[in-house]
Amino acid sequence: MRPTQFLLRIFVIATLAVVGANLAVAQMAAPQAQQPTQATEQPSVVDSPVEQAAKAIEKAKQDLASLEDGVKQKSDDDDALVALAGKTDELGRAVLNVSVSLRPRLDQIKNRLTELGDPPKEGQPAEAEIVTTERNALTSERAQINAVTGDAETLSAAIGKLGNRIAETRRQLFAATLLRRTDISFSVLDDAGRAFVREGSEFIQALSSWLGFVLKFKAFAFFAAIFMSLATALVLLSGGYRLFGRYLQRKETDEQPSYINRLSIAFWSTLIRTLALAALLVTSYFFLNSFNVLRPDIAPIIGALFGSIGLIYFVRRFTNAVFAPKEPHWRLVKLSNRGASSIGACLLAMAVVNALDYLFGSISEELGSPLVLTVVKSLIAALIIGLILIAASFGRPMLARNGDPDAPGRHWPRGMAIILRVLGAGLIITALTGYVGLARFVATQLIITGAIIVTTYIGLLSGKAISRSETFGETSFGRFLQRRFKLGPVAIDQAGLLVGMCISAIALMVGIPLVLLLWGFHIQDLQLIAYRLLTEVRLGGISISLVGIMTGILLFAGGYLLTRWIQRWLDGNVMARSHVDLGVRNSVKTGIGYLGVGLAAIVGVSAAGIDLSNLALVASALSVGIGFGLQNIVSNFVSGLILLVERPFKVGDHVVSGTAEGIVKRISVRATEIETFRKQSIIVPNSELINASVGNWTHRNKMGRSEIPVSVSYESDPQKVMDILLELVNAVPVVLRNPEPHVEFLRFGPYSLDFELRFMLADMGDGLKVRNDLRIAILKRFREEGVEIPLPQSDVVFHRQADHVGTATAAGKPPAKIDDASEASEVDEEAGTVRRLRGKSADGNLKG
């Protein structure tokens, strides 16, 4: 058994044991908790929907008042304000749902009151008492619903104001925290030094007592948590390298990697390895906390320690991926080797300073140290980072002009050096003047936010590079997809576009939340933003749900696939076995297809949250428009939909209609564009293509038959002619052998034997060239073999009479027969005889 599998099994067994123990404890406590509930259950009367809504509104008012009190009391606690903002948003959605739930009943009441009509006026016959009673009850219920709906709208407005007030309070608190000023003096530094010594001793004492307690009373749980954390790390690392190893490591043999390879390895090595370490740290904290190993005062410190480790590792991976100090051919920026090493070291040093500041701040907060100690720690961190920036500005990291990475580099561009010095001096001045919080915030954003933004940008560049035409097929993953799924160039290029979009989406989905978290947002804020984006996007008065739209698309796709499966099943099993006529089978398949696609579209549109009544209004408007002369437009529109769905021809087909012959270039919902072989574009309305016969030479495929008629003289051997023709056509590579070419002896012509050479071509577009070449070959071969191709012949006879020459008969002979031939007669008028002459005339005129 492999070590990974062994550790994985132990991990699963231990997890199941913990879950089983928790379930057992829950089951033991459940009966005791349920007994009082069972004893106090009383039957209750069910309230009407309006009464339930009124009670919900009253409860929402109480909740709103409680939230307002909480905002007043916790106006200086950002974490508490985040929680209150989440509860406010939930309350707003609950109130909105109450108002929406009453709309169907209100519409029913309005329709019923319209059916009942107005009460009879004075002097009119009285109506039935039951009608009056029903009208009064409906009117009263409508008034109650209007009152509840009005309260809900007022309450929604108040909830919205509270949400805005919470957001404004958080912005003010954030600004006040950053701009809070502390006097920096020697007495403050002296107090901070004494507090630091006291904090160090308290921390060592707390850590020693925790470790002693754990090793004495929870040693098994502690080592089990460590073991499961290590097992998880081994599984993550081994699985990650097995799945993504080829995308994480640079090939030493590749001396000139392409730009896309450098981008991809830099992005994926940083992202995947950082996420793997983050998963390890999170699972380790989870196991330690689940086994009750962490004490309440130690748990935040351990969490801060894990966060600091993750930050340092991320910056280390980032600098190695971008600057590649020891591998200049993998470097993404034009730096010298020494410059890459120095800049990477500076960034890593600033990350270590920020991480230690964060860790020491967490220790001070948990041990209750004086605020002055935290201020001085942040002051020292800001000063160190400012000095690092100023020192880095005097370096010479840029690549030498000769391109040699080992040569001494050049100075920073003047603008960049000035920016680094201004930032460093600004941090130092800001910290020394007492704005330590602002200096600490800026220093943190320079390192972490900068690294995240650059990594995200590299991911976007990688996605853009992979999306380029004929690029994805050159990558290792693209070649794997080509081998695995037998994809062609077009398919692999489309797959590259999809992969590029996915990489860009991953980069944005990882980078944007991290930047928002660093800039003061909380996880609850991100959850609320994501929820609103997915469930409620407002464009004016229209509310769009991305989840609903995706659900509608999936339901439509499922209905479409189900329709196609039903079509194939009915055609291949039921109707084929019943020997149903092909025409009936095709009609049934087409009808089921239209019905299934229509139902799938209705279900998808309904699931997407689109009101079908709006579509009914559109349909009614179109019906009115049809009556005013839109019949042709609607006919073409519907015909276009039929053409797009049924696909009797597609773009690229060779079609022949009543008005045009050519290649289909575009099919729209109104008209179809056909390009003739003279490059003339003809726009044909779709209704004409639906209502008239259309010939499609390439409906199923481009294969077709081509013919060459051949005529020879009566003196020729027919079998020899046929053999010559077959020999010549079989020598053409593009002519199909199945079905094989053949020669038809068509007829005995008036002056020739008529044959026709017939053969099949895989692409009818090659027919013109093939026929032309074959005609030349046939003529050349017939001349070599002595096979004569006869010219047309005709007899012309003239008879002379006493008074005139005409076409009347003489000496009992029939009248002259005149064709478009090359035979003429010459008449000797003096002798009165006719001599037949055979001549050859290209234009068919008489010669003589």
From TrEMBL:
Residues 1-26 form the signal peptide. Residues 50-77 form a coiled coil. Residues 821-831 have a biased composition (Acidic residues). One of its GO terms (cellular component) is plasma membrane. Residues 632-699 form the Mechanosensitive ion channel MscS domain. Belongs to the MscS (TC 1.A.23) family. This is Mechanosensitive ion channel protein MscS.
